[in-house]
Design a protein that fits this description.
binds pentane-1,5-diamine; alpha/beta; 12 strands; three-stranded parallel sheet
């Protein structure tokens, strides 16, 4: 995103700095130029065109529609991320323009020690890789104990934006003789009067241009933001990225087109302003538009906030909307794709979530490490809706820290039209005939679990020899694997890229209703069974609302809506009568007792996990 803004800004800089020439370019040069422009802009044009495509799939054109724009506008979480981006961009612009302008004046007009070093240092952020800035800033905030959120995003954006302001404003100052300022002072003006009445009007076009550029860069930034954002502070590019993880929809094309057109417009206005080619009326219109945007970015804030960190595709939008409506709250959702990711996020401490959804195996660790807090069951009357089979499980016998959310198995899903015969064993996932069409979960315990089960061992083995043997199997399988993926394996299966995948049962049950060619099996050697849980982290900011949310999830109708929307079975007995009959009949989601008997819970392994981790790193870096 920042690359695109920089490209557009670069083209604009070339445009404003090159002298106008009359006459056409000679024709070979003209065709070459046209080709370059085509190369640069064809992807953008395609993106915009397909945002109006009636079809959900980018490959076929099925006629014109505004529907995806309307849908994006109705998407509450998308719009609130847009608001967040605008707010960040405004505040970043104000702060960095103030600091950058002061720095530019100091560099251009004052004698300062170590000028060369100061100039170089202030420009460095432009060339330092974004990923390094992002990581370093996050590490610094972590060290200082600053909680990640709006403030840290703005601070990081200001840090990379100041250089651009200094660059533009200083260039303008250098091109202006200081004799105007000297004359004003000779005539008795103070330094401040000179700045306000002489310097500022002269450099104003550069300041406005810098402001628009910073606004655009901040609006578009993804990489740095992703390092320093916290719950409740999801910007639009981050939201788009998380949406892409679950498949590209025309809604994403639509919102990306809006972001793109806004960026181009801002750069265009900036160019016209700098060149003094904007009428008073146009400036007025631009100012009103800006105020409207400020108003829009402030709208919607002020409600109670609930920050949730959960597996992807695990909480349907309509359930969120219902909770927001009934409790007059705003729900912010962030996704993870493995228990390890959740654990390290909570251990890092920067983020403050109100609800997290760990699997059974991680609840014990979170509890022992003091990362989650006791839940007050008196505030959860709907607790009684739970199936007694799921109450008081060994990892939390009194349900003091965790409330069962959904459960499932991690077995084998496959395309009946691509694989030979019905699948019933992990052996199929090592079958060379399926090379490049096999997907495994991106998860150390799940992949090793599959290998260990195939070997006829427990997936909780702590025996170094067994683990080594499983690692050898996984290493052998490496060249057959298309992807290690815990987020979008069901899409890979749907679109035919993968023929056989290790996947979570509910995600598969969900897509089975879309495509009858998809099958799911708990292999004869057995696989993982899991219960995921609602927990409240120890540093949650909205504990009361978190309890209200848990109680809401345990309402029979809510639990059923979650089961129907995600495909996963619910541990809520009262919900059963509201669950779709076709789902209840689907053995992928609701396996027979005998198949469940072959499954094993992942347990915490203590020291032995480091052996797994070492091999896993090797396998992944192959
Ligand atoms: C939902 C993932 C289920 C989580 N997409 C497995 N513990």
């Amino acid at each position: 995103m920042r690359g695109l803004s920089a490209l557009i800004s670069g083209l604009y800089l070339i445009a404003v700095t090159s002298k106008k020439k009359s006459g056409w370019l000679p024709s070979p040069l003209a065709s070459f130029t046209a080709f370059i422009y085509l190369f640069l802009y064809a992807p953008i044009v395609v993106l915009i065109i397909f945002s109006f495509n009636r079809s959900r799939f980018a490959s076929v054109w099925r006629g014109f529609t505004w529907e995806w724009y309307a849908q994006a506008w109705k998407d509450v979480s998308l719009i609130s991320s847009l608001r967040m981006s605008l707010m960040v961009a405004f505040l970043t612009t104000i702060v960095s323009v103030a600091i950058g302008t002061a720095a530019a004046i100091a560099l251009a007009r004052y004698r300062i020690k170590l000028r060369q070093a100061a100039e170089t240092l202030i420009m460095l952020p432009v060339i330092i890789p974004e990923i390094v800035i992002g990581f370093a800033t996050a590490a610094l905030f972590g060290l200082a104990g600053v909680a990640f959120g709006l403030t840290t995003i703005i601070a990081a954006h200001v840090a990379f934006s100041i250089s651009y302001v200094v660059f533009l404003v200083r260039a303008r100052l250098v091109s202006l003789s200081s004799s105007f300022e000297e004359a004003a002072m000779d005539l008795g003006a103070t330094r401040w009067q000179t700045f306000v009445h002489v310097t500022l009007p002269l450099i104003l076009p550069a300041i406005i241009s810098a402001a628009l550029l910073v606004f655009t860069l901040s609006l578009d930034d993804y990489v740095i933001t992703s390092f320093v954002a916290g719950p409740g502070a999801t910007t639009l590019p981050m939201k788009i990225y998380s949406m892409i993880k679950t498949g590209v929809t025309p809604e994403i094309n639509a919102i990306s087109s809006v972001l793109l057109v806004t960026t181009i417009l801002l750069v265009f206005v900036s160019e016209r302003l700098t060149a003094g080619r904007l009428s008073r009326r146009a400036i007025g219109v631009a100012a009103v538009a800006l105020l409207a945007l400020v108003g829009f970015s402030l709208g919607g804030s002020g409600r109670k906030q609930l920050n949730i960190y959960i597996w992807s595709d695990y909480l349907p939008e309509e359930v969120i909307a219902e909770f927001e409506h009934r409790f007059d709250a705003k729900v912010n959702v962030e996704f993870f794709d493995s228990d390890e990711a959740l654990l390290s996020k909570l251990q890092a401490g920067g983020a403050s979530y109100d609800i997290v959804v760990p699997s059974n195996s991680i609840v014990t660790i979170l509890r022992e490490q003091g990362l989650i807090q006791p839940i007050n069951l008196n505030l959860i009357p709907n607790f009684e809706n739970l199936d007694p089979q799921f109450v008081g499980l060994p990892y939390d016998p009194e349900n003091q820290y965790s409330i069962p959310y959904m459960w499932g198995t991690s077995g084998i899903a496959y395309r009946k039209d691509k694989v030979a015969g019905p699948i019933d064993s992990w052996a199929a996932m090592w079958d060379p005939r399926y090379k490049d069409h096999i997907a495994m979960l991106n998860d150390v315990r799940e992949t090793f679990g599959a290998a260990l089960k195939w070997m006829g061992k427990s997936l909780n083995s702590a025996d170094p020899d067994e683990i080594a043997e499983a690692a050898r199997l996984l290493m052998r399988q490496r060249s057959l694997v298309l992807a290690y993926d815990s987020d979008t394996f069901e899409d890979l299966l749907l679109n035919g890229e993968a023929w056989i995948v290790q996947g979570f049962s509910g995600d598969i049950a969900r897509v089975m209703s879309e495509d009858p060619n998809i099958g799911y099996v708990i292999p004869k050697e057995g696989c993982t069974i899991f219960v995921d849980n609602l927990c409240i982290p120890v540093n949650a900011g909205h504990v009361e609302l978190a309890h209200e949310f848990i109680n809401f999830v345990l309402e029979a109708k809510t639990a059923a809506a979650i089961a129907n929307g995600t495909g996963f079975p619910s541990p809520n007995l009262a919900a059963r009568e509201f669950i779709r009959p076709d789902l209840l009949a689907n053995e992928a989601a609701y396996p027979p007792k005998e198949a469940i008997g072959r499954c094993e819970f992942i347990k915490e392994l203590g020291e032995a996990i480091s052996i797994y981790d070492r091999y896993w790193t090797e396998i992944k870096s192959e």
